[in-house]
Each structure stands twice: as C-alpha cells, then as structure tokens.
Amino acid sequence: MKEGTAISTRGNPDRANTAAAHTAPDGAGATVEPTGPGPLPAPGFRDRAEQPPTAQTPGRTPAQPPRAATVARAVLIGLATGARSTAGATALVVTSSRADPAPFGRLAGLPVRIAACAATAAEVVLDTLPVAPPRTAPAGLVPRVLLAPLVAVGADVRDGARPDGPTVLLDALTAAAAATVAAFAGVRLRAFLARRLGADLPGALAEDALVGLLVRAETRRAPGLRVAA
Asked: Where is the composition biased (Low complexity) (predicted)?
C-alpha cells in the first residue's frame, strides 16, 4: 500500500481490522475492537460480563413453577382423587416422560402405565357395584387423603419445585383438603341423583365423566424451566 493512502474505517469494524493488518509490521497482527454499538447490559449490571444467568444458560438451576399453576393443579388432583382414589396417580404416571428426573422417569415405562390405567379402570367398575365400601368411611377416605398430597408433591418435584419449598407444602395441604371435600360431595351428589333418577348407575357414570374432565385438566404440566445440568 502506498504511503499517504487513507482508508476510511469510520463505522465499519471490518475495514478497520483490514487497515490495521496492512499497516502493522510483518509478523505482527493487529486486532481492532469493533466500535459499533452492542447489546446493552441488564439493569443493575455495569457490563455484559456481569449479566445474570438466563433461561438458556446450560447448567443453571431450573426455575420454580408458578405457584398459582401448581395450586390449581393440586386442587384438580385432590378433586379427582377424592372421587376416584387412583385417578390422580394415574394422571401423574401418564404425563411423566423418560426425560424427567428419577424416579419419575421410570413411570414412563409401558408396564407401569398399563398397571396404573388398569387400576383406575378396575376402580371405576368396582364403584358401580354394591360391594364398594363407602368413600367417607376410613377404609375409603384415608387412601384418598394420603394419595392426593403425594401425587401433588410428586407433580411439583417432577416439574422443578424444591421438595422442601413452601410451594410443595401448600400444594400437599390443598390436595388433601380438596380430596376430602370431593369424597363427601361425591356421596351427596350420587345420593341426590339416585333419588331423582331411581338408580345409582346414572350418578356413577356422571361422576366418572366429571373425573375424566378433572384428569384432563390436571394432566397439563405446570409451566417451569427444565435445563439440563
């Protein structure tokens, strides 16, 4: 390049690097930092090196699921379990995948899913028979009150909540209360329909349909961040 030749590099970092390479001594490379505008740092941080971790950063701790979503799901789990004791657990099994953390990833296996669905189907059939124990008696109520919070806590932990966090405790209590309410309300509803219709079967089928709707809504996983470590 001839002396006195000027290269305009203003506003063009690539041309600035090229000009520096031509004017530098042989064997010495020169690097010119781009002078163009870059992304602004987050509020409260002086430069981009101090940026807070983002949701796309690998290895970060998963974000906690929104509390409102988990409480709503706990209510649905409790209502479904109060009506059919195995409904909530079956929903947890069906919605789990092999990518979930242990032990929930094992629930995605086909044998486990078949067993869970078979248990719920058997309960649905048994509930229409006269030999079915009253759900408000200890033999029917205790399993419901215990299973509902276990399923709610399992769903929270599977979706990223801390096992010792306040969200888990709140959802466990919510699910247990909802299961108790559903157990007693279901008995009253069935008795009312039996008096009006003259048979218990229509009420049982209506309750099964309602449980199906609850399980359908319950199987929506709470929105939360899942980041591989």
From this structure: 16-31
Task: Examine residue 49 and state whether it is found in any structural domain, yes or no.
Answer: no
Q: Are 77 and 218 in contact (CB under 8 A)?
A: yes
19 assigned to some structural domain: no
Alpha-carbon span 63 to 70, nearest angstrom? 13
Q: 102-140: per-residue pLDDT in tens?
A: 888 888 889 999 999 999 999 999 888 877 888 999 989
Asked whether the beta carbons of 187 and 135 are under 8 A apart, the reply is yes
φ and ψ of 79, to 5 deg: -65, -45
How many residues would you count in the chain? 229
In a domain, 168, yes or no: yes
Domain count, the chain: 1
Q: Are 215 and 89 in contact (CB under 8 A)?
A: no
Structure-token pair, residue 156: 């929270």
> Does 17 score more than 70 pLDDT?
no
- How many CB atoms are located within 10 Å of the residue 200 CB? 16
For residue 227, being part of any structural domain is answered with: no
Instruction: Quote the tokens at residue 163.
Output: 């096992």
Structural domain harbouring 125: 68-218
Distances (CA, A) of 82 to 66, 96, 111, 191, 210: 24, 22, 25, 16, 12
DSSP state, 108?
Answer: G
Strands (E) in 11-92, as ranges, are none
Is the pTM higher than 0.70? no
| The pLDDT value given to residue 52 | 46
Report residue 59: phi and psi, to 5°: 85, 0
